[in-house]
C-alpha cells in the first residue's frame, strides 16, 4: 500500500499498554486520514463526555504526509471538546506529523487515564510510557527542551493540566493544536507529552506523475498574489489581513461592539516586521513559510491573535500583544478564546483589561487562581455566571474569530453551520467575500451563500483529511491535490470524489452532534449582530444582519444538506449507510 501505513497505535493509559493495530484499507480509502480518519475512529465513542477516560484522543496524519507534497507535513487531532461539547478536530503543522508517519503510523489512538503523569515515547516500532511527574507543572518550553532528545515533541502546559476549557496542545516547533480545549482532554488523561521518532519512508506509487503534479501546485502558488504577492502571507504572515479588515470595517473591536479600531496599524504586518524584526518561518517542508518569528526566534502572533489581544480588548500596544501570544504558547492557552473571554469579561464588568493587566490574567487562567478560576471556563459560561449571557460572542460556546459577521454574510452563515462551533476555517468564505478569490461575491448579500458554504465545507473537510494547509488553496485546487493523491497512493481521486469524501465527513460530524443534543437552536449568532450596526466609514455602511433573511438562508442550507428543519437527520440512521 502506498501513501498509508495502514497502522495505528492504540495506547491504553489506564492499563499502561501500547499496541499496534491494522486500519482497514476501505476506511482509509473512504476517509483519507487526518480529520476524516479521526472522525471515523470516533464512531463507537462519540457519546462519551470530554473527560470520560474511555473517550479517545486521536492524532492522525494523511496519505500525503511523508512525501514532499506542498504543505502536507500536518496532522489532525480529534476528540470531543470540553468547551463546546461538539465533536472536535484541530489541525497543526510541524515535524511531529512527519515523524509520526516515519514511525510507520497513520494514527495514535489514546484512551484511558494514567494514575500518574506520563509521557508517550514512540521510536520506530517501539512505544513506551514513561513517568512524567518531574515535568508536571512545567511550561511548554521546558517540557520540550527536556524531551527533544527523543525526537519531535507535542505537549500540554499548565492550562491543560489544570483543565482550562480552552487549553491547547502545543507542538515543539511553536505550532498549536488550538481551539476547543483538547489540551484539557490530554491533561485529564494524565498525559503530559508525546515524543515521536522514526526513519520510515512514505512510498510513492507513480513518481513521474507526482513530480508533474507537484510542479503544477508550485506554479499556482507562485502565481497567487495572496500567497506570494507583495503584501501576501509569505511576506507578512496572516497579520497582512489587519489593514484589509480595517479598510473593510469588519475588525471585531471591544467585544464586537464596533468593527473598526483606529490604532490597528500599530500591529499590522508591516508594523510587526518593523518593530520585531520579523523573519520568515513555517511548518516543516512548507514552501509558503507564512509563520513569522522575532530576531530572537520567538514565534510572533497570527492575525486572529493580534486582533483579539488588540482591537477586541481595546489595546494598541504591540509589545503587550506579542507578550500575550508568547505567554499563551508557554502556558498552553488558545489565544482566540483567551482574548475573547477577557473581552466578554471586560464588557460585563464595564472595563476592558489594559495592556499591563493581560499577562497576569492569563497566568491566573492557566493556574485557575483568583479571577482565573471563572475565566478558565470560557466566555459563554463566564457571561452566564455574571448574569449577562448576551455578552459571549460565541457559537456553540466557541468564541468567534477576527471576522465580524456583519461585514461578510457568508461568514455569518459559516459560523453557525460549522460543526465545531464559531470557526472561520470550516468554509472560509473570506476568500471570495474579501480576498475576491477565486470569484468575488457580494459580502452584504446572502444570495447563493447556502450552496457556497456547503461546497466549501465539503472541500475543507477533504483538505483537513489529506492533511493539507488551507493557505495552499489560495493558489491550488482540489484538482491538483487530487492528482498528487492519485500519484502517491495509486488510487484515482478527482475533485468530485474528494468533495464526496468531505461531505461524508461533515455529515458524520453533524450526526454525532445531533445525537448529543445539538440542533437548530445551536446554529445561531449572538443577538448583537442582528440588533446593532457595525462601524460605518469611508463610504462603507455595516448594518445589523437581517434576521429573517439569515433564517431563510439557513433553512435553504439545511435543505441542500438533506437535513430537516431542525438541522438534524429526522430519524435517518446515517452511520448505517456509511463505510
Structure description:
Residues 4-200 form the Aldehyde ferredoxin oxidoreductase N-terminal domain. This is Aldehyde ferredoxin oxidoreductase family protein. The chain has 579 residues and is of the alpha+beta class. Helices cover 40% and strands 13% of the residues. Strand 10 and strand 11 form a beta hairpin. Helix 2 crosses helix 20, helix 18 (409-417) packs across helix 20 and helix 20 packs across helix 22 (495-515). The longest helix is centred in the last third of the chain and has 21 residues, at 495-515. It starts with 6 loop residues before the first strand and ends with a helix. The mean pLDDT is 95.
Topology (SSEs and partners):
Elements: E1 7-12, E2 17-22, H1 25-31, H2 34-41, E3 57-61, E4 74-80, E5 87-93, H3 95-102, E6 107-111, E7 118-123, E8 126-131, H4 140-147, E9 152-155, H5 158-161, E10 169-171, E11 176-177, H6 182-188, E12 191-197, H7 207-223, H8 225-228, H9 233-236, H10 241-247, H11 269-276, E13 279-281, E14 291-293, H12 303-309, H13 318-331, H14 335-349, H15 355-367, H16 372-375, H17 379-385, E15 394-395, E16 398-399, H18 409-417, H19 430-433, H20 449-466, H21 478-489, H22 495-515, H23 528-531, H24 547-561, H25 574-577
Parallel strand pairs: 1-6, 7-12
Antiparallel strand pairs: 1-2, 3-4, 3-6, 4-5, 7-8, 9-10, 9-12, 10-11, 13-14, 15-16
Amino acid at each position: 500500500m502506498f501513501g498509508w501505513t495502514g497502522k495505528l497505535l492504540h495506547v491504553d493509559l489506564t492499563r499502561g499498554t501500547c499496541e499496534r493495530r491494522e486500519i482497514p484499507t476501505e476506511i482509509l480509502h473512504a476517509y483519507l486520514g487526518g480529520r476524516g480518519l479521526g472522525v471515523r475512529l470516533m464512531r463507537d465513542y462519540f457519546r462519551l463526555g470530554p473527560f470520560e477516560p474511555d473517550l479517545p484522543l486521536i492524532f492522525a496524519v494523511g496519505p500525503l504526509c511523508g512525501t514532499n507534497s506542498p504543505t502536507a507535513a500536518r496532522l489532525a487531532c480529534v476528540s470531543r471538546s470540553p468547551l463546546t461539547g461538539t465533536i472536535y478536530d484541530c489541525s497543526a503543522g510541524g515535524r511531529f506529523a512527519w515523524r509520526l508517519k516515519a514511525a510507520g503510523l497513520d494514527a495514535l489512538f489514546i484512551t484511558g487515564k494514567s494514575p500518574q503523569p506520563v509521557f508517550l515515547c514512540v521510536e520506530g516500532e517501539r512505544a513506551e510510557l514513561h513517568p512524567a511527574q518531574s515535568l508536571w507543572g512545567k511550561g511548554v518550553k521546558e517540557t520540550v527542551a527536556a524531551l527533544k532528545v527523543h525526537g519531535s515533541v507535542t505537549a500540554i502546559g499548565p492550562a491543560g493540566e489544570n483543565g482550562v476549557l480552552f487549553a491547547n496542545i502545543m507542538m515543539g516547533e511553536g505550532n498549536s493544536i488550538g481551539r476547543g480545549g483538547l489540551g484539557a482532554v490530554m491533561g485529564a488523561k494524565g498525559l503530559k507529552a508525546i515524543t515521536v521518532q522514526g526513519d520510515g519512508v512514505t512510498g510513492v506509487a507513480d513518481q513521474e506523475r507526482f513530480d508533474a503534479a507537484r510542479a503544477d501546485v508550485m506554479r499556482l502558488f507562485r502565481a497567487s498574489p495572496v500567497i506570494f504577492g507583495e503584501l501576501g502571507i509569505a511576506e507578512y504572515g496572516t497579520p497582512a489581513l489587519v489593514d484589509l479588515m480595517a479598510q473593510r470595517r469588519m475588525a471585531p473591536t471591544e467585544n464586537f461592539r464596533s468593527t473598526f479600531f483606529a490604532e490597528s496599524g500599530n500591529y499590522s504586518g508591516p508594523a510587526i516586521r518593523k518593530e520585531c524584526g520579523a523573519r520568515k518561518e513555517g511548518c516543516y517542508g512548507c514552501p509558503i513559510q507564512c509563520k513569522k518569528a522575532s530576531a530572537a526566534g520567538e514565534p510572533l502572533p497570527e492575525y486572529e491573535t493580534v486582533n483579539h489581544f488588540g482591537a477586541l480588548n481595546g489595546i494598541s500596544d504591540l509589545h503587550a500583544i506579542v507578550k500575550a501570544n508568547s505567554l499563551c504558547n508557554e502556558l498552553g492557552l488558545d489565544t482566540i478564546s483567551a482574548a475573547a473571554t477577557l473581552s466578554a469579561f471586560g464588557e460585563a464588568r464595564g472595563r476592558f483589561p489594559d495592556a499591563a493587566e493581560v499577562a497576569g490574567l492569563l497566568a491566573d487562567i492557566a493556574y485557575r487562581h483568583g479571577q482565573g478560576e471563572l475565566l478558565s471556563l470560557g466566555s459563554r459560561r463566564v457571561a452566564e455566571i455574571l448574569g449577562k449571557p448576551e455578552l459571549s460572542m460565541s457559537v456553540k460556546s466557541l468564541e468567534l474569530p477576527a471576522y465580524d459577521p456583519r461585514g461578510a454574510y457568508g461568514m455569518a452563515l459559516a459560523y453557525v453551520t460549522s460543526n465545531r462551533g464559531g470557526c472561520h476555517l470550516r468554509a472560509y468564505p473570506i476568500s471570495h467575500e474579501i480576498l475576491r478569490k477565486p470569484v468575488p461575491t457580494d459580502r452584504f448579500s446572502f444570495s447563493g451563500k447556502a450552496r457556497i458554504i456547503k461546497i466549501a465545507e465539503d472541500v475543507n473537510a477533504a483538505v483537513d483529511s489529506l492533511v493539507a494547509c488551507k493557505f495552499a488553496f489560495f493558489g491550488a485546487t482540489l484538482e491538483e491535490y487530487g492528482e498528487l493523491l492519485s500519484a502517491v497512493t495509486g488510487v484515482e481521486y478527482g475533485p468530485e470524489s474528494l468533495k464526496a469524501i468531505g461531505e461524508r465527513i461533515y455529515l458524520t460530524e453533524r450526526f454525532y452532534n445531533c445525537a448529543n443534543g445539538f440542533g437548530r437552536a445551536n446554529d445561531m449568532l449572538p443577538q448583537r449582530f442582528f440588533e446593532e450596526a457595525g462601524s460605518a466609514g469611508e463610504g462603507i455602511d455595516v448594518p445589523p444582519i437581517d434576521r429573517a433573511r439569515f433564517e431563510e438562508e439557513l433553512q435553504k442550507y439545511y435543505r441542500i444538506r438533506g437535513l430537516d428543519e431542525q438541522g438534524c437527520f429526522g430519524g435517518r440512521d446515517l452511520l448505517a449507510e456509511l463505510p
